[in-house]
Design brief:
Layout (H helix, E strand, L loop, with lengths): L1 H13 L1 H17 L4 H4 L1 H30 L2 H6 L5 H29 L7 H28 L3 H23 L5 H8 L2 H13 L6 H24 L7
Helix pairs in contact: 1-6, 2-4, 2-6, 4-6, 4-7, 4-8, 4-10, 6-7, 7-10, 7-11, 8-9, 10-11
Length: 239
């Protein structure tokens, strides 16, 4: 496991430009939404930006890297090594969890320095916990995509399309631009529930029944996506 972790973190470091690009998007949104902090609140802005980043990590980062390595035969070579198959994926997920930690920290720092958004220590702590929980939803969705689709290029195109739909419909729908029905649908979508638990965790005193229901739905999404992704996944792209 230690060797796998070192290899995966080394690979991630060598491909750090792709993560930087993923990181830039939520930070740019954070800076551009500075005028909305007074209107919608700092928790809303931070929650939206972190949700955008989590979506990118799961769909643009994780699924594409797994599909690419599978097509190159890396998984096939690892499976003949004296390591358990589950440890291969656990190592990959540990790297993604580290990326979620860096993303959340970057958004918190950006919110503090650019938008003067200050949370309580409890709010920051619960924010990290909620980010990890929300991240499992999109990692599970990325696993489902790469399990359902074998070709790496098709995985890349599909994940980009899903990412675009989630972000555009989620952000505009939540702001009420797309009408009440779409807004209600977005509220209970993966985007809406993850964003809700994030925003609620930043203000622990505002955690209510709606936030608790969003947490339950978020966990449900993570379980369903992960279960299907594991069941459909094949180590060899040719099968």
């Amino acid at each position: 496991m230690n060797s796998l972790l070192r290899a995966d973190f080394t690979t991630q470091w060598r491909n750090r430009k792709s993560f930087i690009l993923i990181l830039i998007v939520p930070v740019i949104i954070l800076i551009s939404w500075k005028g909305l902090v007074d209107k919608l609140g700092g928790a809303f802005v931070l929650g939206s930006c972190i949700t955008v980043g989590l979506t990118a990590i799961g769909l643009m980062g994780y699924s594409n890297s797994v599909a690419r390595d599978r097509e190159k035969g890396i998984f096939q070579r690892l499976r003949v090594a004296p390591v358990a198959p589950w440890s291969i994926m656990v190592s990959r997920l540990c790297v993604q969890m580290a990326m979620i930690l860096l993303l959340t920290t970057a958004v918190f720092l950006g919110g503090y320095y650019f938008d003067q958004i200050v949370l309580t220590p409890k709010g920051y702590f619960l924010g990290y916990i909620s980010a990890f929980i929300g991240g499992t939803v999109y990692l599970g969705l990325g696993q489902m995509v790469v399990g359902l689709i074998k070709n790496a290029e098709t995985v890349h195109s599909t994940s980009r399309l899903i990412y675009f739909i989630f972000i555009m419909v989620g952000m505009f729908g939540e702001l009420g631009v797309l009408g009440k029905q779409i807004g209600d649908l977005v509220k209970w979508s993966p985007y809406g529930t993850v964003k809700h638990i994030l925003a609620s965790s930043f203000q622990p005193g505002g955690w209510d029944q709606a936030a608790f229901m969003s947490l339950l739905v978020t966990v449900g999404y993570a379980v369903v996506f992960s279960t299907l992704g594991i069941r459909w996944f094949r180590w060899n792209a040719s099968k």
